[in-house]
């Protein structure tokens, strides 16, 4: 008898998660089912099912954590009509409020109707809310501002009215706000400027109007979609990280700001169907990231030349219905597969019948009172052209009126003909998104290009699995021991190689205390990071607190950056490969700082902490994770609270400059090809670098630079990298450049090097063997 008992109690301790859902929460779910009028997709919920362990199904996701529901997602089938008259939104939220542990709430296309009641504030743990495609109306209740943990708020395709809520400023963690297709009106309030974490703001298809506040303080803003509102007249001022900017169909007038050509992360720019005038900047065609550019239906002027360059990644380009002259750049007309180029109704030299004669565009430009502003490169043509147009327009003032009418009529026609739906850029696969908990925040991951990652999705591992993978943590699988615990190499059942970090805790904590940490770790997935694959807890048998935490990472096979640049023997990277490795590290660093929330800073970057994979892509392997540092300091491992996050951001600025300095040291090693292990070496070499930069003669430089590099590099490219390196190593943190500046310069160095290689026909593809 006693041995049976012992067996069962051990069993219970081993599986702390298999306990039943609290019955009160189960009752609430059943009540929700009734309030939703027993939809077919909830038919398997009844008194006897353990809802937490129900069969997964595309309409319903319930995630429980230790007897409480943390995630509830119910999706109707899209063709839903409003629930019957008897439905009460008030009772619905009263029932929801009995699930106070909910972090993710997604109730879409369910036919919910009514005005969201103030008691939504009782769901105080909410982080992600998606209630798209319902029939919710009235204002968005002010009480939402009490949900301090809220990161994502999506209320698309409803009938919310009133102004854009000005209380959003009290939600300091907000990263995604999407209120697409409602009937909001009035201006965008100034308070939005304080949302420093904001990455995505989608207000398309509303009745918002008026001038935009200065959005340049939203330094993390990546997606701004204002399509089909009445915003204007001035072009918004924005931070430099914008990836998607859609101003289509608003009331913007005036010229495009020249700063637009410095948005080098911009992938999608749509300013079509506004009233923009003045010169179109051809440099927009060659922005390094641009993929989608639509300026149709404005009155932009300027002359295009065949020899202008454009970004290879540009897949959609619409210049239609502007006042452009000259000829289409050959880089656009070269028929790249899958590339769409539209340019009807301009004055371009082309077979296309919709083009007007040159004089027409010049007269039009004159008629709207804007002369093409003088551009340096084309000034000769321009002044001549303007002189002609001035003369022409005095002579032909009457003709002009006629022309105008023809133009308007033809334009109306071309508009009709132009109804080609804008091509959707291929959705980035979302299956690689780490934690189920955050599956709904796909937006964030999409913009961060997480989908391209070729590693399995994040999950939790069983201890048995890890023991099997490492042959019971045998010594042959031991990789080493750092300040943050031991590392093992393992091979999973499916043949996948992994690196396993083992953390032993000095104090006892329940696994619940680790929730936040696990959430953060699960976000460490990016091409230039050694990505997290999952975790595993080991428990003490007596009180089922956590004894060890195993973190499973991808195994990167090709050695450290030091092995590949400055170590003994072996193949060494060429200059081209070194720059691309440096770009990789910088991108990884940028992701750690701004791609996850909270960002990770002071990551102890060094050549031995950067790993290189079989494609020679550099991956950062050291993270300043709170769970690691707190454990080292023997502090209580607490959840990262919202307050913690604020303090964290205070240290962020300092921490990011620490990383930049460490990055400078890595660059130094890349340039010199010598392992740098001592601080004093850095100081000395930095001085040498400075001296060599000052001395223009090549002789001094050769002595500093790795001979392997010097042989195969373009001097302009090398000079750029040396300059970046010196800046990164500045003594004053404030003198060090931002990650963005570093990336910009390195990308420039890569381009120059590429062009040079093209010219010199040197075959430099494979690494040089020592
Ligand atoms: C579930 O329990 C409720 C309350 O006890 C009861 O009214 C209902 O009939 C039960 N449903 C089923 C299917 O047993
Ligand atoms: C979708 O909804 C409609 C109307 O609510 C319903 O008739 C239909 O059976 C539903 N389809 C599925 C697959 O649930
Ligand atoms: C806007 O929402 C309505 C329902 O509220 C929907 O019928 C319509 O298709 C949506 N429009 C767009 C452009 O998504
Ligand atoms: C929004 O603006 C459109 C166009 O002006 C108008 O038809 C519509 O009634 C407006 N909606 C609301 C709710 O004000
Ligand atoms: C491009 O061509 C124009 C005229 O065809 C010429 O004036 C200009 O210098 C060229 N620019 C470059 C960079 O070759
Ligand atoms: C919100 O829910 C809708 C409907 O399920 C879904 O299509 C959309 O992708 C969700 N939004 C985000 C950002 O995940």
Q: Provide the structure class.
A: alpha/beta
CATH level-four homologous superfamily name of the domain at 562-770: Transferase(Phosphotransferase) domain 1
Q: Give the class-level CATH name of the domain at 562-770.
A: Mainly Alpha
**Which molecules other than protein and nucleic acid are bound?**
2-acetamido-2-deoxy-beta-D-glucopyranose
Mean pLDDT: 80
Distance between the termini: 71 Å
Radius of gyration: 30 Å
Q: What is the CATH topology of the domain at 562-770?
A: Transferase(Phosphotransferase), domain 1
Signal peptide: 1-26
Domain Protein kinase: 473-748
Membrane topology: Single-pass type I membrane protein
Subcellular location: Membrane
Structural notes for this entry:
Residues 473-748 form the Protein kinase domain. InterPro entries: Kinase-like_dom_sf, Leu-rich_rpt, LRR_dom_sf, LRR_Rcpt-Like_S/T_Kinase, Prot_kinase_dom, Ser-Thr/Tyr_kinase_cat_dom. This is F-box proteinisoform X1. The protein has 19 helices and 34 strands. The chain has 770 residues and is of the alpha/beta class. A 13-stranded mixed sheet has the order 1-2-3-5-7-9-11-13-15-17-19-21-23. β26 (478-482) and β27 form a beta hairpin. The longest helix is centred in the C-terminal third of the chain and has 31 residues, at 642-672. The termini are far apart. It binds 2-acetamido-2-deoxy-beta-D-glucopyranose (6 copies). One 2-acetamido-2-deoxy-beta-D-glucopyranose binds next to loops.
